[in-house]
Amino acid sequence: MNENTEPIPKRIEFTPIGYVENDYLEPGYNEEIYEKVSKIVIKKDLEDGLYRVEELEKLYILFYFSKSEGYKLIHRRRYDGEMSGVFASRSPYRPNGIGLTIVELLKVEGNVLYVKGLDAIDGTPVLDIKPYVKELEEKAERSKE
Predict the structure, then answer these.
(1) How far is CA 18 from CA 3, 101, 105, in A?
(2) pLDDT tens digits along 16-51
């Protein structure tokens, strides 16, 4: 750490902004989940934060793996069977249990988002939603080349 950096806090707390509703009740790898529609129900007092979200085609959804317990630093990846470190995988068994998925936004009804491609189970707490803007993502990728 340099001299201007504050020490890392021992604990960080988040309050969910909403939760997931879908037909997936147990954790597990299932390709079908990417084709299914899920609802993201946002707390009513945060509904104004969805203003103009319907203008977006895709969203980043950050969520908490509330049913995952423990983690291994090295394990077999679900999607290709190869061994890797937890930070080189999409495993729900992570030191901080944070999930990130890009979803297709289908429609918005009040405080409910209908999305396709969310790999989270029913009842999963949603921590944040951010816009996926293709042009910005591509610009960031080009600047790395």
Answers:
(1) 38, 16, 16
(2) 999 999 987 776 666 677 778 999 999 999 999 999
